[in-house]
Design goal:
Two copies of one chain form a homodimer.
Chain A lengths: L16 H15 L6 H8 L13 H24 L5 H12 L4 H12 L11 H30 L8 H18 L8 H17 L1
Chain A binds a DNA duplex (30 and 30 nucleotides) through loops.
Chain lengths: ~210, ~210
DNA sequence: AGTCAAACTGAACTGAACTCAGGTTGTTTG
DNA sequence: CAAACAACCTGAGTTCAGTTCAGTTTGACT
């Protein structure tokens, strides 16, 4: 499986691009994007602030890259998880479970993505930032289409009652990703329990 | 009904506090908080930038005030909408409908609230900002409790199957508020349709 | 050893948020 | 009425994180 990794093997051996992304995910994920000084990321990687600009055009460019990579990963994981299922209900169940089968770093990436989603709405001034933004936007639409087309397949097979698949898909997706706003690995409820609860909710929402 | 209004009648007759809040809601709601220059808000109100500091300690203080007022309004509206209902299912329906019975300005306020929710997580340096942040946080918990206690009542009455009311409440709330991330009054689907669809989803989620 | 691109740096710049040191306006009170 | 006072406002200056500039260092490969 070609899952989008933070560390790109295409880079030169001396490149610190991957290390910067990892450090940025940690800091942006813990304290938030606005609350994190760009120079702190440099400190953590062990380079001067200006060296960051060798790899990213700006702090926002780094953030947008993180968001795009996370969206790519989410989409890939959805496709991977649902490709072998034929029964619509089982397909929905697999999709929900895959959304919560994530590492701690991926949780941070989801949190960053959700917290800064509105950044994708308005155009960016610089070229490379805009490229990342547009790519991220398209991936958002792709993830939305993953869900809507899954629901539409289930409806046309007669497994789900007919409803507005687009609005329903956005609602399901909204409920799933809302978890990353409050979930912390140190919290009282394990993620597996949340996943099971949401799985049941989604099935009742779409199939009854 | 004492709904929290943006314009506080306690203010002096010359005060532009209300006008600043209205202008800020418009600008923050349309272009986003980070994308809006604080001086643009001053321009719109027709005062110099520094005059803003007579009413708010900072741009963030203004944002936090908007968020707190919107949370207060949401809570009040929930209480108002559910107070006469006795049947748990009807109570849930009323709560969902009330969440979507909003004006265009309130839609912007919800959008601002959702987009900047993560601001409530970390303490603020200045006194007045921190006061608003803590008040907003408590209101978030109050709105969450509105939902969880509604679900718990329904469960103990035997109207809803027993589930983790807290996680379920957060999921329901997450689905509802996720609408403000993508909904625009100019869009193809009217809000009434979205409201009906979500109402059905929530009922199936909690009552079946 | 020489060349080249990738990787890096300290010093200077920018712009938006904010502070300061007062000035103006309207209202209250003797 | 005018003095006193608080609310309201302003232009000039400061701050600080993000960014640009003008080069310098590093290491792989002839």
């Amino acid at each position: 499986m070609a899952r989008a990794r933070i560390v790109d093997p295409e880079e030169g051996p001396r490149s610190k691009r991957g290390a910067i992304l990892v450090a940025a995910v940690e800091r942006f994920g813990e304290d938030g994007y606005e609350n994190t000084k760009w120079s702190e990321v440099a400190d953590r990687v062990g380079i001067g602030q200006t060296a960051l600009y060798h790899y990213f055009e700006s702090k926002a460019h780094c953030l947008l890259t993180i968001m795009r990579l996370e969206l790519q990963r989410s989409h890939d994981q959805f496709v991977e998880a649902t490709k072998d299922e034929t029964d619509p209900v089982e397909e929905v169940r697999a999709a929900v479970r895959s959304a919560f089968a994530v590492t701690e770093q991926e949780i941070r990436q989801m949190r960053i993505l959700q917290a800064n989603m509105s950044l994708l709405a308005t155009p960016r001034k610089s070229k490379r930032e805009e490229t990342e933004r547009v790519a991220a936007r398209q991936l958002v639409q792709m993830v939305e289409r993953d869900w809507t087309s899954l629901l539409m397949r289930g409806m046309s097979k007669g497994a789900f009652p007919l409803r507005d698949a687009h609005t329903l898909g956005l609602s399901v997706l909204g409920m799933i990703v809302s978890v990353w706003r409050w979930y912390r690995p140190t919290g009282a409820i394990p993620l597996s329990e949340i996943s099971e609860m949401i799985e049941g909710c989604v099935v009742r929402m779409v199939a009854e």
